[in-house]
Design a protein that fits this description.
- This protein is mainly alpha-helical.
- Helices cover about 95% and strands about 0% of the residues.
- It has helices spanning about 1-65, 70-110.
- The two termini are about 35 Å apart.
């Protein structure tokens, strides 16, 4: 009788462990999905801002056409600097998101070992 009860307890523990693994897996997948969504949102925001900068640059060029070429060149350089800073920010965002994913997966793997 004790052997039968022991097998029932073992089966309950195995079922609980499987359920716990499923919950951890679901949580990990949800977190990864949220991180990917955050990265996509950040990239979209960067793209919109870049478009805005380019439109602003074109507007300034149109406003200054006919005036000195120096002003137009200065605006062009300023805009290129802003665009370069934006690209670097986007690269950092991507690296940060990837870093968070790696840290999360490493933490989850350590929890399972």
């Amino acid at each position: 009788m004790d052997s039968f009860r022991g097998q029932g307890v073992i089966q309950m523990l195995l079922t609980a462990e499987q359920e716990a693994q499923h919950i951890v897996s679901s949580a990990r997948n949800l977190k990864i999905k949220r991180l990917k969504q955050a990265q996509e949102d950040a990239e979209r925001e960067v793209g919109l801002y870049r478009s805005h900068l380019e439109a602003e640059f074109q507007k300034k060029i149109a406003e200054t056409s006919g005036s000195s070429g120096f002003n137009a060149k200065r605006l062009e350089v300023d805009t290129e600097v802003k665009i370069q800073n934006l690209k670097e920010s986007a690269a950092r965002i991507s690296c940060d998101v990837i870093g968070m994913l790696i840290k999360h997966v490493t933490t989850v793997n350590l929890m399972h070992t």
